[in-house]
Amino acid sequence: MWKTILRRVLIMIPELIILSILVFILAKQLPGDPFTGSINPKASPGQLHHLMKINGLYDPWYQQYGNWIVHLFHGDLGNSYEYQAPVTTVIGSRAVNTFWLALLTMIMTYSIGLPLGLYAGRHEGKLQDTLVRIYSYTTMSVPFFVVLVLGCWILGFDLRLFPTAGSVTPTASGFMEVALSRFYHMILPATLGALFATSGITQYLRSGVIDARKSNYVKTAQAKGVSMNNIYKHHILRNALLPIAAFAGYSITGLLGGSLFTEQIFSYPGMGLLFLNAVNFRDYTVMTALVLLYGFLSLVGTLLSDIALSVIDPRIRVD
What is the pTM of this model? Predict the structure, then answer.
């Protein structure tokens, strides 16, 4: 397996290079520039021209790309035009917020989705199964951003139960106070995100449990007198988790990439909101670095899904 993982990691290198070239070219094709409107509104065209020239934005794209690659190998992704700070610093500060929100969302998603799917599968056709399916179909049919807006409006603005902006209260000081404030800011967006993400997991696990329960090896175990609890624990659940494991890596890396809707509506300073701002302000350096990071996370997600499948089912090997 280790040789396969190493080979897959080496294959990522040319894929990321191709992605970086495409992103670099497309970013330069966006209309506008990073300076108009971001400095003194009364700045003359000559001043804007000077800023464009000293930043190399008039150079051919391949020359700009070559310079960017050289700096990349020295650990320098350039400076953000909007924030006037190194790109690594800007992304790093936002990545911490996105990581904690993604971690809480993922924990809540699987804590809710797995028991619901197993419960519905065990009670197929009964009232319990019907209620779970109604919940799943409702969350799948209602647009995600609508739920986010309603949750922010009702629980945040009207009832004032949760904060609706930021990641930490500005007045918080000390490790424990900052940690509790961060958790308090994440509860509402993480809960809404988890409630939506559980629908897919619940349906996949429910279908997997129903299919596994009708299989021959379950009937054989029942004929041997094995209790249903042990059958579900050691046979049905393990096989029913295969479809979920196939998408687990993508889910994790998708959350780490940041949710555009969640971070925009809750003004949560994560990587998703940073990417939107980078596009709006033509912050080419941040935009390119983020897309490259998203591409890397997607490739890692594919590898993680394959590894998870091989761990759950020994018959499957990463070759």
Answer: 0.80
